[in-house]
Amino acid sequence: MLRRTLFAILLLVGTLGTTGVDSIGMTVSDLDRSVEFYTKVLTFEKVSEFETQGDAYEHLNGVFGLHFRRARLRLGDEFIELTEYLAPQGRPAPVDARSNDRWFQHVAIIVSDMDRAYRVLRDNKVRHASTSPQRLPDWNKNAGGIQAFYFRDPDGHPLEILSFPEGKGNSKWHRPTDKLFLGIDHTAIVISDTDASLRFYRDVLGLQVAGESENYGIEQERLNNVFGARLHITALHGDSGPGIEFLEYLAPRDGRPFPSDEKASDLIHWQTRLQVLSAAEAAKALAQLKAAFISTGVVELPRAVEHIRQSVLVRDPDGHAVELAER
Hints:
This protein is α+β, with helices and mostly antiparallel strands. 21% of the residues lie in helices and 36% in strands.
């Protein structure tokens, strides 16, 4: 009977209509500084900005007495949102954060020329997270020939620039262009158990698996800056927006768990906003599955400042924040 009930719930959630990833958000300490970095160095375009406070956002984000500024930026067809909490100010990111800690999340920015993009980052004195750009080996069928480099924004958020060889990646990344930074391919999150994450993102939220690989070797170690790194990587996508990529570290297994007291105002906070047809139905189904909610429930947002109508914020099995938003 229990198995039938669970199956019925999963069937219900699968019809909720998760249409894709709207945006990837992160908390920053100085919005003006961050907007300048993303627009001047990485050539994002600022689409909008607002400042707000009040009950709706307190109930959505689980932070009492909040007052924040938020900017929405676009690169290609994809969006990020940067939020500065004027009150209450959250905690800084740990200085010893590693790529296999389970609060790790980044966005992968596609570039048309890895060497030129790396020079731009060096000229702007960004902090390295990788040793240098790495080309993944040809023996790795699904990842061979991909070039990648991890670096950090002014608050220490990890970012990646990525270049696909011909025949790999979305076809739009191979269109002729004179632009250097093209758009966001995916957001990557460190997870502890691929099967558990698939039950949440694929079986519950309805995203589709696009591919997987097992990556290891000196190139992967230098890319992640984790000695002995061996990863099971699973890529998922919706009908629109960037994908979500799972990074399960098969070795080493010493990544630290997501802090249980993390708040949206803390600088390690990221949240992935998924578009759904009904926030209320999504919240109902997730409650039946005993998902961990950050929000007090479905929240009606002020149309004067937002492009969405209702939203709810939950945590995935590892603690990453996922916003389910209805337009």
